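Model the whole thing, not chain by chain.
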Amino acid sequence: MDVLWAVLVQPFVDMVSAPDFLLQVLWDGFVGGVLYALIALGFVLIFKASGIFNFAQGIMVVFAALTLVGLYALGMPAWVALGLTLVVMFVLAVAVERLVLRPLVNQPDIILFMATIGLTYFLIGLGEFVFGGEPKVMITEALGLPTGMREWEVFGGVVFFQEIDIAAAAIAIVMVVGIGVFFHYTRIGRALRAVADDHQAALSVGISLEQIWVIVWFTAGVVALATGIMWGARSDVSFALQIIALKALPVLILGGFTSIPGAIVGGLIIGIGEKLGEIYWGPLIGGGIESWLAYVIALVFLLFRPQGLFGERIIERV
Amino acid sequence: MFYREAGQFKTSYRADMAVFPILQDRIGLGVILFVAVVLVPLLGDDFFLNTIMIPFLIMALATIGLNILTGYAGQLSLGAGGFMGAGAYACYKLTTYFPDTNILILVLASGLVSAAIGIVFGLPSLRIKGFYLAVATLAAQFFLEWCFIRIPWLYNSNASGAIEVPGRTGFGVMLTGPSASPEARYFAVLGLVALLTWIASNLVHGRIGRSWMMIRDMDIAAELIGVRPLRAKLSAFAVSSFYLGVAGAMMVFFWLGAAEPSSFSINLSFLILFMTIIGGLGSLVGSFFGAAFIFILPVLIRAAPRTFGIDVAADAVQHLTYMIIGALIIVFLIVEPHGLARLWQVGKQKLRTWPFPY
């Protein structure tokens, strides 16, 4: 009985009795979720356009952030460094398309997946070789991002908001809306959706697959850069980020591989769910459950909807 | 010229369906076994046994385990490291409770524990497929890793949180712990790997292996002609986890001598997956090739600057190793997506027609 009470009732009693703390936890979870959603967004972009499960998205985040910090450390103004980083991400996109994707056209999914893992290793090695392995500090102030703290008195307590978190949420929203508009109303966006729908049909109406892939990988690179800046501002820029990026995978399966809204909603569910679980249920079994709770949440959802919340229905034929 | 089956007639169905139907293959296998049993321990020094042969054989066994699941049954898994850890910790607990039992029996028994865990984490595969399943297996990986850290019972509540291998014997010989000789450990590993490879070969050539491959190639069609997906998928998970568990236990007991939870991290899972794919999905001999390629290559790269007398900082070499491995994997996938096993087959085919190819 005690166990059931502790699992099923006590956490909710705790939540209601300290609503300000609950609000703080929800906010923290929300911010974490936004960042997961951003990483997942990069995955979804590439998966939609090329059917490739891009494992390297996590390391692209680290790589972009490292490049930015590294260029700034050379003495460039922040905006020049930002522009140059975008150039680097574009070169990376072209190189990936030329050297990895084009020779591997028509291979099974798992081969392409493995190729992106190879790319991950390559980028880890390159990043550490060029910039060194030690954690770096993100140039938050030079980029003009706010760094203060805001307080909000509510429910007889105080809830703290980092300004950088608010900025992160705002930038994420702008970016998602921007990508959505880009996909819906521009010529390139329409081509992207055509490719996502059917490669051969897209080819037959004269859409260049190669060009689309470069654009998509570059867009994913831009998303990676934004994610890297945001995440780097919260902690350090280090290769540990790459492990956190693995958290984007449950977000993906929760939202469905092919859905941008799914990535956002999935990210928020995972972010908030894992924070709530860690704070209110974690102590029951020793804490630290954040490392796997996200996967279990996603797994439970999957058992009911194998294609994710927003994924396209999987139709199988023999 | 030498490798030709002309004149070798099969007079029974058994002979025709043998795993090695060609005489030269049987001779070749004999030579490999002779080298492994006699020449390697005779000629190799302790360093060679410890840093190359023992880990290579263990990694090959783990690769076979993952190959059964991913290569034969088609269920992509990123949780190999977790299952290896499950085997290692199970073996550690078993040696605590049964200190006098033959360690080889305990290693095999710990595989059974890992197999049971594998069945539990294989359950989602009945409903989830492809990359979705890969992410589901990550749940297994991280959950097991968390268990190794957070459950003190698993590591006998010692202060370091790591498991230290005690000295244990098998057949009256000291096989584990600091006082065991490399030769003894090598023979233990070689014996187990040979035995388990033989069993795996029989499994994949038999009824159960065929049901795995049918599930892999087209699960609905397989179901229609009477393969039970539940039984086929869960048996693949069980057998695969058994192999991974045994490999994990061997890794700690016969090679590392001690292990902490981070030894079984996601990186190990990726390493095993690399070996499986580079070696060739759905090929046992490929598992050995893949393990050799991925495991021995970094050793060589690290040794290369010293050999050529170039002075490079240790961490730069480490980074370069990463880059080279990443690039090689991509190159490899482009040149031969079906892995080293396919190269081996092509080579054999060439050899068959040599010196007069048509």
